[in-house]
Each structure stands twice: as structure tokens, then as C-alpha cells.
Amino acid sequence: MTHKLTGPALAAILLAATPAAAHVTATPTEAPAGTKVTVTLRVGHGCEGSPTTAIRVELPLSAGWVNPESKADWDQVIQPGQGPDGRLRTVEVTWKAHRPVATPETFAITFDAPSTAQTLYFPVIQTCQTGEAHWTQIPAEAAMTGLEHPAPFLTLTPAVAASGQPQ
């Protein structure tokens, strides 16, 4: 027997699925420490039905050289600042849409990963025609459970030497 979901039942299922799909995610989720990495941030949709107009990403201070991807139909603003080593570096990137966007979008950033294994967080503020979503929560521990608006993250694994052993 086949069951069809219509009306209120289908709406309830879709509404229940929305929070899980709403998070901003990073791909890949792991990369070797000490390498050049391209992380792609995926923004699922607008803020509670309102189209996205801008995405602001705070970059980890431990990241080295940074190159954010240019996107058609989006203007890019790079905010320089001082890194922990005292050198000038990119600390924040903002993409501003030429017109509001209600569909999923991706934003790529290539950078030199620190040489030590760690988790890097990329807090994101999503600005919409109406409201904002702050994907900025960083867990006190490694577990991401229980966070309503977690920051996307990338886990750096120990670098592997030519011998195949972790460094």
C-alpha cells in the first residue's frame, strides 16, 4: 500500500527538517595540517524565508595566506588585519549579492593551514532582506551537538611525513 503525504502532514515534515538543513557547512570536513586547503562553505537558504543579501566569514587567525574565491553576481570585500605573528593578513571576507538570493550558494576560500592538528572555525553572519542568521557558535568541547547555530568548521589532522608516519 502506498501512502501519499499532502497538506498539513507534508508541511509538518518539511518544517521539522528545516533546522537540520539550515546550517552553514564546510567541505571538506578534514584536511592535513600544514597544507594548502580549499574549504567551501555552503549556505542552504535565506533567513526564515527571506533571501540572502550578504555573507560575512570570519577567518581563523591561525590560517596563513588566504585567497577567497570571486563569485559572479556577488561583490567581495576583504578585511585586512593583524595575525598572531604581527603580519598583515585577511581576517574577514564579505560577499554581497547583486540581487537577493533564496537558493543555496557556496563560497570557497583557499588558505595555508597551520602546521598543527586542530579544529578551525569559520563564523558566518548571513544577512537577509529581513533579518540575519549568526552561524557563530563554537563548542566548548569538540562535540557540535546541542548548538542551534554552529559555526562551520574544518578539522586539521596531523601532517603525514614522506615515510607515511604522522609528524
Round the mean pLDDT to the nearest integer and report it. 83
Shape: globular
The number of helices is 1
Helix content: under 10%
Oligomer: single chain
**Secondary-structure element string:** HEEEEEEEEEEEE
User: Strand fraction band?
Assistant: 35-45%
Please state the second-level CATH architecture: Sandwich
Class inferred from helices and paired strands: mainly beta
CATH topology heading: Immunoglobulin-like
Q: Indicate the CATH class.
A: Mainly Beta
Integer tally of domains: 1
- Give the CA-CA distance, first to last residue: 58 Å
Q: In total, how many beta strands?
A: 12
Q: Find the CATH superfamily.
A: Uncharacterised protein YcnI-like PF07987, DUF1775
Give the low-confidence spans.
1-21
Q: Main sheet?
A: 5 strands, antiparallel
Record the strand order, biggest sheet. 6-7-4-10-11
Structure in words:
It is a single chain. The chain has one domain (25-143): Uncharacterised protein YcnI-like PF07987, DUF1775 (Immunoglobulin-like), CATH 2.60.40. It contains 1 helix and 12 strands. The protein has one helix at 7-22; strands at residues 25-27, 30-32, 36-43, 52-58, 66-68, 74-82, 88-101, 105-112, 118-121, 124-128, 132-135, 153-157. The strands form 3 sheets. A 5-stranded antiparallel sheet has the order 6-7-4-10-11, with no helix packed on it. It has a 4-stranded antiparallel sheet with strand order 1-3-8-5, with no helix packed on it. A 3-stranded mixed sheet has the order 2-12-9, with no helix packed on it. The chain is globular, with a radius of gyration of 18 Å.
